[in-house]
Amino acid sequence: xxxxxxxxxxxxxxxxxxxxxxxxxxxxxxxxxxxxxxxxxxxxxxxxxxxxxxxxxxxxxxxxxxxxxxxxxxxxxxxxxxxxxxxxxxxxxxxxxxxxxxxxxxxxxxxxxxxxxxxxxxxxxxxxxxxxxxxxxxxxxxxxxxxxxxxxxxxxxxxxxxxxxxxxxxxxxxxxxxxxxxxxxxxxxxxxxxxxxxxxxxxxxxxxxxxxxxxxxxxxxxxxxxxxxxxxxxxxxxxxxxxxxxxxxxxxxxxxxxxxxxxxxxxxxxxxxxxxxxxxxxxxxxxxxxxxxxxxxxxxxxxxxxxxxxxxxxxxxxxxxxxxxxxxxxxxxxxxxxxxxxx
Length: 343
Ligand SMILES: C[S@@+](CC[C@H](N)C(=O)[O-])C[C@H]1O[C@@H](n2cnc3c(N)ncnc32)[C@H](O)[C@@H]1O
Description:
By secondary structure, this protein is an alpha/beta fold. The chain is built from 14 helices and 7 strands. Strand 2 (58-64), helix 3 and strand 3 form a beta-alpha-beta unit. The protein starts with 12 loop residues before the first helix and ends in a 22-residue tail after the last strand. Bound molecules: S-adenosylmethionine. Pfam families: Methyltransf_5 (PF01795). It catalyses: cytidine(1402) in 16S rRNA + S-adenosyl-L-methionine = N(4)-methylcytidine(1402) in 16S rRNA + S-adenosyl-L-homocysteine + H(+). It is found in: Cytoplasm.
């Protein structure tokens, strides 16, 4: 097993701990009065380890679709014994995972989206444009379509769409055309060949700005291979549905489309769905979430970005499931607050 290179620094760790603490530091409903923390993207276990250390009465349900990541975090978290439950699952499967562990609701959830440094460092996974490897890019290598299959079979319009939307690549159509020309000669099987092809398709002046010319194409392929956006669209509402009252969810996104899905899912539940002209909420129409990051997403400080380049594009959003007054009906908060209804 390849050891992760250097020190992996969890992104916005202190802020994540601060946001989760009120939900985890309270009497829990899990056996022994413990609270439940779900790490939807356990990765190398950096955030998970810090939560377990900060909250000795909390148990972890740690998900990851990557079996190698789980093997690393299993070793890292071994000392926490029966407080740790690691599960090989895609994060939209959380509602099915919990009952298998005898759990119904959870107190805190973290999603640190995207790829781990382990995946980027392991040459044979094909995520990195700087290393030559077979074009795989699956986070779960046990299933699904590879980047090689996409590059060698998608049509010009489909390749262009993926590169433009997921990679925000200005030269999407030119790159797609170059891919199609090249694969007519021989299948494209290596990340180095693809990176070179992308570089050669981009006008020379544009190659000098915005980092490595192949970065956006590799990001786009990775998102397509792993169905990242459609999975995220299902996963976040499903996660909110299993929060206990007062439970909190924190999301770290690294792509504008992921962050938009997060923002919209939170906003939909943070506003009233009742008639605008009523001064009080009707039963079941009140907001169910309270936004903890009002006024937009939070970003990493310059100091953190200097220490940890991965933090440069992070956007953090967090929300809490509103606790109902005893005896009130779900979604009923009585007098409507002026900001309950969204724009
Ligand atoms: C950025 S890393 C998490 C790093 C972690 N917070 C830490 O401190 O070590 C993201 C992890 O999420 C996993 N992942 C990405 N999409 C997933 C999904 N849909 N379901 C489950 N795991 C996923 C990846 O395999 C990767 O290990």
